[in-house]
Amino acid sequence: MSRHVAAIEQEERLLARWLVAPALLFILVGSLVPIAATGWEALHGHDLRLPWLGRPFVGVANFVEAIQDPRFTSALLHTVTFAVVTVPLEIALGLALALIMHTAHRGRALIRLATLLPWAIPTVVAALVWRFMFDAQAGIVTALLRTLDVVGESFDWFVHPLAAWVPIGAADIWKTTPFVAILLLAGLQTIDPALHEAARMDGAGGVRRLVTITLPLLRPALVVAAAFRMLDALRMFDVAYVVTGGGPGTATEPLSLYAFIVLMQRLRFGYGSALSVTVFLLTFAFALMWVRALGRSLVGDRT
Amino acid sequence: MRRNPAGVAGAALLTMLLFPIYWMIASSVTPESRLFQSPPLVPSTLSLDHYRALFDERDFLIPIRNSLVVAAMTTIVVLPVATLCAYALARLRFRGRALLLALILAVSMFPQISIVPPLYLILRELRLLDTYPGLVLPYVTFSAPLAVWLLTGFFRQLSPELEEAAMLDGASRVRALWDVVLPLAAPGVATAAILTFLYCWNEFLFALSFMLGPDRYTVPVAVTLFRGRYQVPWGQVLAATVVATIPVALVVLAFQRRIVAGLSAGASKG
To answer: Which residues contact A295 (CB under 8 A, 6 or more apart)?
Structure first.
């Protein structure tokens, strides 16, 4: 009998290998091999516009160039600042939205629809609409602020190095807060309502219950949502490309966008690969840090 | 009429979520000449000029076709690959299972830009730049992890008893998977298909990097590169964004419960 079980287990192990093989193949060919290839390319001088120079090995010269390149350091700064500023806002707003979705008695279907639409809309569409709403002439946000005398007559968001971040942030927060809300809503639904009932009996108010019951129990969902959002914000490309194109000048250029410009416009593949690798390393470093700090709630009872 | 603060906050959030979509639609039917005067909240004149220009002058059907073809090809490849992998992850014991799960999650978090350079060089070498298969490869790689993650959670929720019964009756595991499990898993597979479609419809960076001519632009690329040399033809751009939103809105309307369940399953199991 036990030999029979062993044979079945053997067979299942073999079957499992066949079942996961196609997916594994795609992961290898589509991302693991390419990321290694990017790392290798980053160690070469490779300019597609100067093919006669070939592709000499240059060691870490591209990374040295990056450190000395002020456009790289400011792009790095932009990326990290953007992530650190927008993600907490998205988490806070997403929590508010999730709480409203969770407690609403009427209009649940409408709220769910209103939440899913921004999440599902293409990012470039969201970015274009917000770009339009902040337009100096046609933008309704600008017009509103002008009537309220918050901004001057000829104010233009897109010529100010700092103000240009506002439409980028607005578009990004609008687009991604719903995703956070959906994740947190799932977390809220796992909380036993009896806990709230008991606390209410004991006279705990809404805020008190939020702080002592909801937030601690929501911690795993918050940790996961923040991780997803941070990793996404650190590779941000679409919104910046569409809303400002990195401008004015390079004042709103994130790392992914600078790497893209070096690669696809200047065709400097060696240096562009080095920049791309730094985006990867940045997200990797964050992921490691996050797992080490909060690992248990991330992995949870998955296995 | 009772007014509670949560209700007011809810109404405010709802407005903030929906207003940009309303404004996009309202502006897309406003004549260009009125677009740049201080615009009224409710458009006074309806004009379909921008939409007409979009399809007559811009031939916007081309990017729509491209996006649909790429999304369909990707979905056709992703579903069987992801379903088989997810079933193994959910039901079978094998070495490297935890590692594979971690790998799949990690890949879905990869910054896209970090694999653009070698993919571009390889696709150029294989003459696959500017072709559908050239875009389908990265799309499969990036949407498969999501589908696997989602379907693994889904298979785990299915009771193993039915397939065990089938196997006791002499069916092989593959047979049981095909006859018993797949029909039950149809809703999960459908959700995976929806999310894969949305991913392909929305993806921008790969399409921008690998589709070089207007004949092969997908919808997001075409919409973005509308910007004229001197000024943005906002009326047409907004009409295009509305057109790009319509399929997404239909999918969301039809499958909203399923999408919410799928997204939260993927995350809470994480």
So the answer is: none
Query: How far is the C-alpha of B268 from the C-alpha of A299, rounded, in Å?
Result: 10
| Tokens describing residue B251 | 């999918």
Query: How does pLDDT run across A80-105, given as a tens digit for each residue?
Result: 999 999 999 999 999 999 998 888 87
Specify the CATH class of B59-268 in words.
mainly alpha
Q: Tell me the pTM.
A: 0.92
Please report the DSSP string for A153-182 in residue order: TT--GGGSTTTTHHHHHHHHHHHHHHHHHH
* Confidence check: pLDDT of A176 > 60: yes
Are A135 and B234 in contact (CB < 8 Å)?
yes
Taking CA–CA distances from B111, the nearest residue in chain A reads A235
ipTM confidence: 0.92
In angstroms, the Cα distances linking A280 to A13, A263, A273 are 34, 16, 10
Nearest-neighbour CA in chain A from B246: distance (Å): 9
- Average pLDDT of chain B, as a whole number: 88
The terminus-to-terminus CA distance of chain A in angstroms comes to 29
Domains contained in chain A, number: 1
Name the residue among B107, B145, B205 with its Cβ closest to that of A238.
B205
Interface-testing mutation among B16, B17, B148, with chain A (most A C-beta atoms within 10 A): B17
In a domain, A6, yes or no: no
Nearest-CA distance B248 → chain A (Å): 6
Is B250 touching A (CB cutoff 8 A)?
Answer: no
* A164 touches A251 (CB < 8 A): yes
Contact between chains at B6 and A111 (C-beta distance less than 8 A): no
- Nearest CB among A111, A122, A143 relative to B38 is that of A143
DSSP SS3 for A149:
coil
The beta-carbon neighbor of B204 closest among A96, A123, A279 is A123
Q: Which amino acid does the sequence have at A185?
A: L
Q: Which of A114 and B32 is assigned the larger pLDDT?
A: A114
> What does the domain layout of chain B look like in residue ranges?
5-47, 59-268
Q: What is the CATH number of the domain that holds A244?
A: 1.10.3720.10
